[in-house]
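Section 5.1 Outputs to date
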Amino acid sequence: MAQTHAARGAGAPVLEWYRHSQRYSIGMGLAGFVLIGILIGFRQGLDYSWLSMPWTWAALAVAGLGMYEIFRLVDPAVGADWLEVGRTWVLLYELTDIEVRHRGMSMHLDLKDSGGRKVQVKVDELQEDRDMWDLAYNGLLHLVVTNGATTNWAAHSLLEVPDQPERIVAPIVIERVR
C-alpha cells in the first residue's frame, strides 16, 4: 500500500482500506466512453456523422479516461478512530454532525468532526469492505448514543442509527428535617 494517509501521518495505523479493482475501473471508463457517445448521438438527432471527425474520438477518449480516474480515486481508509477519503479525514469519535443524503442514485454520508474537518463518502464504498464498515459504523453509533451527535432523519431510517437517547434526570428530593 503506497498511499499516504493524512491521519496516519499523526501516527494512527490504517486498519482497513478499499479501492476499486483495475478491471472495474476500466469497465466504468469504457461504459462512460460509450454512454457519452450515445448521449451525444441522441443530442444530434441520432446522426452519428460527427464520429467521422478525429477530434471527437479524442474527446470521447478523454471522457472515458476521466471516468476511469474517478473510479480509481476512490480509496476510503479507516483506522481505530478516524476515517479518510482522498485527502480529507475526520476523527470518528469526535463527530458532531452525521447526515445521510441522496446524491444521484446513491446514498452519501456527510460527516463533520469537532475540529471542523468534513468528509463525504458514498455509503456503498464503505460497505464494500465489511470490516471497514464495522469500524466506521461503530464510531457513528458511539457518537449518537453517548455524545448526541446531530443527525438527520435519513441516518436513522436508512442506516438504522438509533435516535438520541433522552437524558433522564433524576428528580431531586429534598426532605424536610423536623
